[in-house]
Amino acid sequence: MIEPDFVTTTRASYNTLAADYAERFASDLQQRPLERALLTWFAELVGDGPVLDVGCGPGRTAGFLHALGVDIAGLDLSPEFLTIARAENPGIRFDEGSMLALPDPPGTFAGLLANYSLIHIPDERLPEVLAGFHRVLRPGGYLWVAFQVGDEPRIMTDAWGHEVDLVFRRRQPDQVAKLLLAAGFDVRATIVREPEPEELTSFATLLARKRPDSDLL
């Protein structure tokens, strides 16, 4: 199978940025009380798991949920990110892989997170990715999707002095909700946070649940 160009460039860019990214955003979750509260709610919903953090980056979200007692694993394209994630979270399994080809059997997970990771997936590939999420979730399992709100992508060719090739696809919550509905999910909550002064966009989190009968669709 030939790897899409956007996967190759996203991996290479984050391999280049991994160390700077991990340092710059080391306390990011600690500074976001709303996100911590929502993740705590998610942890209560999924119980002891298992849960997969897809596009886990340096593993900070996985580490937060693990500390709450969730049986969680991480998946990411970038080996450099995974090196950091494993060093910071020795009790969590982190694997290299793509959300376009999840290796897990159907119904493996009680929960799945795509925390600012769908932003690098082109619109035309989103139904495919959501179908993969649906497949690996148990009936009644929960899906967390977070993304920047907007209508136009942000293209980044330079970050902190490094040459990169990244496209950040901003989307509207109702657009994502329609895709989730078509993929066999019910949206249980939509939360939109307005930007802080230093931020460029609003941020949305959608919590969805796999319909118990959707495997029959």
- Unreliable segments (pLDDT under 50, ≥5 consecutive)? none
Can you tell me the number of structural domains? Answer: 1
Name the CATH class.
Alpha Beta
CATH topology (level 3) name: Rossmann fold
Alpha-carbon Rg, integer:
16 Å
DSSP helical segment count = 6
Question: What helical percentage do the residues reach?
Answer: 25-40%
Placed side by side, the strands forming the largest sheet appear as 3-2-1-4-5-9-8
Instruction: Tally the beta strands.
Output: 9
User: Mean pLDDT across all residues, rounded?
Assistant: 93
Keywords: Methyltransferase, Transferase
GO molecular function: methyltransferase activity
Protein name: Methyltransferase family protein
InterPro entries: Methyltransf_25 (IPR041698), SAM-dependent_MTases_sf (IPR029063)
Structure description:
By secondary structure, the chain is α/β, with parallel strands linked by helices. The chain has one domain (5-216): Vaccinia Virus protein VP39 (Rossmann fold, 3-Layer(aba) Sandwich), CATH 3.40.50.150. The chain has helices spanning 5-24, 33-46, 60-67, 79-88, 126-136, 173-182, and strands at residues 51-54, 72-76, 93-96, 109-115, 137-148, 154-159, 162-168, 185-193, 203-210. The strands form 2 sheets. Strands 3-2-1-4-5-9-8 form a 7-stranded mixed sheet, with helices on both faces. Helix 3 links the parallel strand 1 (51-54) and strand 2 (72-76). Helix 1 (5-24) runs parallel beside helix 4. The longest helix has 20 residues, at 5-24. It holds the Pfam family Methyltransf_25. InterPro entries: Methyltransf_25, SAM-dependent_MTases_sf. GO terms for molecular function: methyltransferase activity. This is Methyltransferase family protein. One of its GO terms (biological process) is methylation.
